[in-house]
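Exercise: predict the structure of this protein bound to zinc ion.
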Amino acid sequence: MQLLISSAMLADLQQLTQAAAPQEICGLLFGREGRVSARRTAKNVAQDPQRHFEIDPATLIAAERHQRDGGEPILGYYHSHPAGTVRPSITDAECAAPDDRFWLILNGQDAAAWRATEKGKVYGRFDAIPLDCFGAKGQTAAK
Ligand SMILES: [Zn+2]
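Solution:
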């Protein structure tokens, strides 16, 4: 299993990460079978958005409803560590449900993909998974 994202979307997220620093950005990833087809920005409603993130529950509820109604499923979450590494923090592990969803973490330059599982190797909650990009050409070929 890997996380597949378009290079354009990844570049976009790195730019948003840099623009919002020192605050963390966050949002939802949509798609199937590890392939991101869309994303949605969420408000970071954490009390200290420079150190943590919390996706606006209203955005999450709307996305869950959309999925239930046959819309594109929630593939996972993204957030930034503008002053840190792209590894999950202990707080990330404490907040993550073991729902097998993907976590994309960015710092403005690097990005890494993780999966929230019951017995992950990182803080007992995350497993590292490959992050792959596809360009506009690959996207066209797949259709
Ligand atoms: Zn984090």
